[in-house]
Amino acid sequence: MIRVQRDDFDVGAEIERLTAGKHDIGGVVSFIGLVRDLAGGASIKAMTLEHYPGMTETQLAEIEAEANRRWPLSASLIIHRYGRLEPGERIVLVLAASPHREAAFEACHFLIDWLKTKAPFWKLEDTDKGEKWVAADARDDAAAARWVKG
Amino acid sequence: MIRVQRDDFDVGAEIERLTAGKHDIGGVVSFIGLVRDLAGGASIKAMTLEHYPGMTETQLAEIEAEANRRWPLSASLIIHRYGRLEPGERIVLVLAASPHREAAFEACHFLIDWLKTKAPFWKLEDTDKGEKWVAADARDDAAAARWVKG
Amino acid sequence: MKILYFAWLRTRVGSAEEDVTPPAGVRDVRGLLDWLKTRSPGHAEAFKDLSVVRVAVNQTYVQPDHPVTADDEIAIFPPVTGGSS
Amino acid sequence: MKILYFAWLRTRVGSAEEDVTPPAGVRDVRGLLDWLKTRSPGHAEAFKDLSVVRVAVNQTYVQPDHPVTADDEIAIFPPVTGGSS
């Protein structure tokens, strides 16, 4: 399941809902991304996430479908927020549940790595040195490249 | 922080408590282990986790300390339950929070892998074919061996 | 043809959305970008370095040789930066 | 010397805890296990295959050549199986 929303989410409730009644699940791995108060030496007052409505949902659904093709998942979830967020606020939640923990770890890791390089979101940082659009990080491309099948 | 307890835990509340006010955190990775309803072809009615009070706490604290030596973690947590648990119930929670997501993923993965081969817990399955002590799985030794420094 | 701009491409172009009618010679993404550059100094500035420009046609990522037609929704944006740190 | 047994070693020995006074010749874990085997058919059965027996002295994992003394807490148990599937 995927959701793109302005509002915050309740991690415990999302995990509960995703796993309720599914007794084949041995492990659930979650990733929560938060707004940090520092970036490249500048102090962050807030960041604003812009996205491409429509394409975002299509891309996230495709990324989730790919994870389900690669690993035997009992359940999966991506929630990504947009709008203005302050340090400490949640940006993204990725969940993967599987009978076995290795599959859950790999799928969750894959989901966030691919999301970062494929989902059409852009971050504008509001820092003590002014506003700045975040540049893509080559490390994220490298992280995503691990999952490209040879 | 580590806790060994009979009672269930609230994943959302634990994550909230662990990360509250720490604005250097970019990523939180959690692993939740659940009781499955099937094991080796047998249907599980319940499983009982026995442990070695005292040594369990010492081992978990040592495993957590090792993760903190290896990765730059802002916070970490292990909660492991004991006693009788039914399918779908939570057994274990492992959390790792770090400025960067790779460190959080690796540390969380390390914590559960090492816990499985080092923390003195034993599982007795109550199945439709009778009671059975779970045997150690060579795959868990292999998973833990990945983290042994050469 | 509907063009959408996002992030700093939007601010440099000065508009989130444009309806354009490129000349008949514009048949693919590369041709479209070359033509868009001529529309204003802001456009020229936005498309100066195409290595940091990505394009989606009808919400699918495409390469510069992908065809474009009058009914397409073309989105132009920098490399994405979602997720967290 | 206090001996603790866990999991199926506890059920085979038939006891979770014993206070024992091994003969003076028992100086290490290997010697202790050999001596414990002689205490009952249950003990003999429990320690039949030492490849699935682990030992902790004073709550620390040890190897068979680790010394044991009268004041030690010795725990004997199968390979651990915590966590989830």
Structure description:
The complex is a heterotetramer, with two copies of chain A (150 residues) and two copies of chain C (85 residues). Chain A is of the alpha+beta class and 150 residues long. Chain A has a single domain, classed as Aldehyde Oxidoreductase, domain 3, CATH 3.90.1170.40. In chain A, 34% of the residues lie in helices and 36% in strands. The longest helix of chain A is centred in the last third of the chain and has 18 residues, at 101-118. Chain A is globular, with a radius of gyration of 16 Å. The two termini of chain A are 28 Å apart. Chain C has 85 residues and is an alpha+beta fold. Chain C contains three helices and five strands, in the order E-H-E-H-H-E-E-E. Chain C has helices at 7-13, 29-36, 41-46; strands spanning 2-5, 17-19, 54-57, 60-62, 73-77. A five-stranded mixed beta sheet of chain C has the order 2-1-5-3-4. In chain C, 33% of the residues are buried. Chain A binds chain D through residues 26-27, 99-101, and chain D through 83-85. Strand 2 (27-34) of chain A pairs antiparallel with strand 2 (27-34) of chain B.
Shape of chain A: globular
Q: How are helices and strands ordered from N to C of chain C?
A: EHEHHEEE
CATH superfamily of chain A: Molybdopterin biosynthesis MoaE subunit
Q: What's the helical proportion of residues of chain C? A: 10-25%
Radius of gyration of chain C: 12 Å
**Oligomer state of the chains in this structure:** heterotetramer
Proportion in β-strands of chain C: 15-25%
Strand arrangement across the biggest beta sheet of chain C: 2-1-5-3-4
Gyration radius from CA atoms of chain A, angstroms: 16 Å
Total helical segments of chain C: 3
| Mean pLDDT metric of chain C | 95
Low-pLDDT runs of 5+ residues of chain A are: none
Q: Count all strands of chain C and give the number.
A: 5
> What pattern of helices and strands is seen along the backbone of chain A?
EHEEEHEEEHEEH
List unreliable stretches of 5+ residues of chain C: none
CATH fold-level name of chain A: Aldehyde Oxidoreductase, domain 3
Mean pLDDT of chain A: 95
Number of helices, where a helix is a run of at least 4 consecutive DSSP H or I residues of chain A: 4
